[in-house]
Prior knowledge:
- It is a single chain.
- The protein is mainly α.
- It folds into two domains: 1-37; 50-275, MetI-like fold (Orthogonal Bundle), CATH 1.10.3720.
- The chain has 14 helices and no strands.
- The protein has helices at residues 7-37, 40-48, 50-81, 86-95, 97-100, 103-113, 120-129, 140-168, 172-180, 185-213, 217-222, 235-244, 248-256, 259-275.
Amino acid sequence: MIFQGSDTAWAVAFLLPYAAVFVFCVLYPLGIALWLGGRPHLFVELFEDPNYLRTVGNTLLFVGIGVNLKMFLALLLSGLFIRRGWRVRAIFMFFILPWALPALPAFLSIHWMFIGWGGLVHNFLVVLFDTDGPIWFNDRWLAMGTNIYAYMWKWLPFWTVVFMAARVAIPKEIYEAAEVDGANGPRRFVHITFPLLANLYLVCTLLSTAWTIGDFTTVAFVSGGAPALQTQVLATPGSRTAVSIANPPLGIATMLSALPLLIPLVILLMRRVHKSGIQL
Length: 280
């Protein structure tokens, strides 16, 4: 055998496929992106575009409200769904469906629900209150609200399950001792549950923020950037510029402009993970 008696040679032989995958699937795409979209004149062109700053503001609004409200609700709902009983299980089964559904048909369904005349929400208002509802995608703030609602509806169940698993891992003896001391439900949550889950909550929030900055599907298929591209986030004009307008360098530069926010997030995330005792 070629490598018989040589541990180093065997180690190299097993390492080479992983190194090749890393080079071609990680380093090569990243290098191409930096080469195409890292030229200074592209960022000058971006900042001269009057829609770019509004897109950045939309991204911060979408991420800031969507992620934080989603995480807070997930933490609260995790306390409900760890309770026993067939009613809770039945509700949980329907609650988790949005996460199980494919994103594209789910977001297209929400788009048609809020489309305005003929949409489900419009017809619901007509039947119950005999009044026409607003045309959601003709107003920037209503359209942004719909995007945030759709994003939370899709991802809230996932993070609720994460916090449910964390709550179950907390020893019951701690809650029993607090109950003996006279602590009610809110006080147990404030003084026991939240402190014990605080590090996990922060890590999940940072991770979700990093994911959501690059979210394309929600805005693209719910509002489509309407009205008049006023609800775009960084991922949507980046894709549109690279594909529809056939200008990949400028499209990549649009997404690379999020790096000043993403890099500190990743560094903080890694520090929090190491502080919690997990070795990477």
